[in-house]
Amino acid sequence: MTAAFLYGGAGILLFALGLWSLLVHEPLLRKLIALNIMGAGVFHVFIAVAHRGDGTPPDPVPHALVLTGIVVAVSATALALALHNRLEQEASDSAKSTPAPAAGLVSGLSIRPQSDPIRHE
Amino acid sequence: MTTDSLILPIALPLLGALLTTALPRIAPVLGVIAAILTALSGLWLTGQVWGDAAQHVVLGGWALPLGIGVAADGLSASLLAMSSLVGLGISVYAVGYFSGSDRSPHFWPLWLLLWTALNGIFLAADLFNLYVMLELLGLSAAALGALTNSREAVAANLRYLLVGLLGSMSYLLGVALIYTAYGTLDIGLLSERIQPSALAATSVVLMTAGLALKAALFPLHFWLPPAHANAPAPVSAALSALVVKAAFYLILRLWTDLFANITTTGAAFILGALGAGAILWGSWRALRAERLKLLAAYSTVAQIGYLFLFFPLLQAMPPGPARDDLFAACVLMAVTHGFAKAGFFLAAGLVQKNAGHDRIDELGGAAQSMPATTFSIALAGSALIGLPPSGSFIAKWVMMRGAFETGQWWWLIVIATGTLLAAAYIFRVLSRAFGQEPTPRCFVTDARAEIPALLLALSSVALLGLAAGPIWSLLGFEGVQT
User: Fold this and answer.
1) Percentage of chain B lying above the pLDDT 70 cut
2) CB of B353 closer than 8 Å to CB of B97
3) Domain boundaries, position A35
């Protein structure tokens, strides 16, 4: 039982650490790693739940959920990296003509009000 | 038969997404066929729920704690009907909007995938499938929003993606805690077992916060305006009308079904207060917006606020016909906004395409060159304001009566101020649009693109206002008590 508590507690701790890092750090890569650490925290909790005491086989349902969760996390990370890649490409393309405001672009979760830019097709 | 009607609204768009991916050259044709079939299956299911009440099916022959449940009741059927009709309108419009564009092959698979996820959320009966569908919704929505390929659109949607991921992580942790305590994820089984406890309260907070982030509840709305305003018009319509509704639907479902005996007046008041903030701030920013699509995006923030005002009222109202009225009014408000905002965004997209910009101050003459589009904006606008006979007029009426009856008069001030601000920002657009002579020669200038917008706006006013009764009967309630 203690083992399950340790696992679950560690999971919650990882979630909190990831959340803090996601909100505090600017670079996209750090944000993505933070999100993945949060995910790992939640998966830890699920795995701790599956433990039903020594000698009895673990509950299979949380394991299945964790597997699905990992797949979802991988695809989400891939999409975020692809979008980021496109931004970087555009930034390097337009760097010659106009100086790009690169710093603000990936400030994912900062609650600063945006200046509402819209560009037209 | 029940199995078919419950599965088809999820299976058909998924099949369509696969086919449009495999055959990109005929993607628009396949996409429209898939859209028509999906809409029909959604309406068929709605009809069934109307006739024989709630439907429930467990897939694959596995018994409930292990099997995957799919269910439809009045609430999910109403929203499913909305997603069917609005989705169909958006699909027809998208054929014209993207014709000849190299983005068309990218649009269709993503859009059909988004529709799959939406219908999946409305029909899923267990918390984990809801998580999977939420993630699918977030991923396809962010990818669709970035289709414009402009720097702003990609940056805004990257941020939207991160916000969405954070929201679903928070939701998933709540689900993990629920499973720890009760050992099941099926909403029906859970609502019988759930008891007030610290663990349950924590998971309510985590799940509600995560979903509120996805529903863009003030002050967590910061990601919405840039993401919605920079997307291509059909995508903006889908994001604003449907995607935020999915997150709202889940909060409503959790609060009224699952956590009905855990939620407290204080917690509901907080949701209501945030909703009030959303109404005032969103309407104010909409009034100050320089561009039509940005105005529409901020108006979404405000309209989401109205939906959250229902929570303190529902919490305070004792069960009975009056509470049923409030609940139905809440659903009516969400559905009306779905139609109105979709119509508004589609029409705004036409203005942008026709004039080359959507700056409100330079809209002069829009009424003369595009009469049907301007009429759509005006119709959708009257539903956003809540003028009779639109659906939101009835919803606001019931909401204000509920506020009186439960003694929460302060919400009335918020509703009245929000309505005035909405009137101001809609009339600001219209006053600019009617800025020039001469009078138009023909009403409809581009039938394929204008008619979906016009029909959606018209149904938000005429269909949902004059014929709001079916929503009550779909939810299994008696008629409006006035």
Assistant:
1) 94
2) yes
3) 2-94
Least Cα separation, residue B338 to chain A (angstroms): 23
Q: How far is A113 from chain B (nearest CA, A)?
A: 7
pLDDT over 80 at B482, yes or no: no
Find the mean pLDDT for residues B414-431: 90
Contacts of B145 in chain A (CB under 8 A): none
The DSSP annotation for B147-164 comes to GG--HHHHHHHHHHHHHH
Domain boundaries, chain B: 264-482
List of chain B residues whose C-beta atoms are within 8 Å of the C-beta of residue A22: 162, 166
- Whether pLDDT at B214 is above 80: yes
Is pTM beyond 0.95 here? no
Residue A47 lies in a domain: yes
Could you tell me if residue A105 is inside a domain? Answer: no
Residue A15 is assigned to a structural domain of this protein: yes
What tokens does B249 get?
């639907």
Report the distance separating Cα B246 and Cα B224, nearest Å: 15
Task: Report how many Cβ contacts below 8 Å link chain A to chain B.
Answer: 127
Helix (H) / strand (E) containing B59: strand B55-59
DSSP characters over B213-258: HHTT-TTS-TTHHHHHHHS-HHHHHHIIIIIHHHHHHHHHHIIIII
Q: Does A105 touch chain B (CB under 8 A)?
A: yes
The C-alpha angle B301, B341, B152, rounded to 5 degrees, equals: 65
Each residue of B230-244: pLDDT tens digit?
888 899 999 999 999
Select from B236, B248, B42 the least CA-distant residue to B145: B236
Structural tokens at position B195: 């008891």
How many domains does chain A contain in total?
1
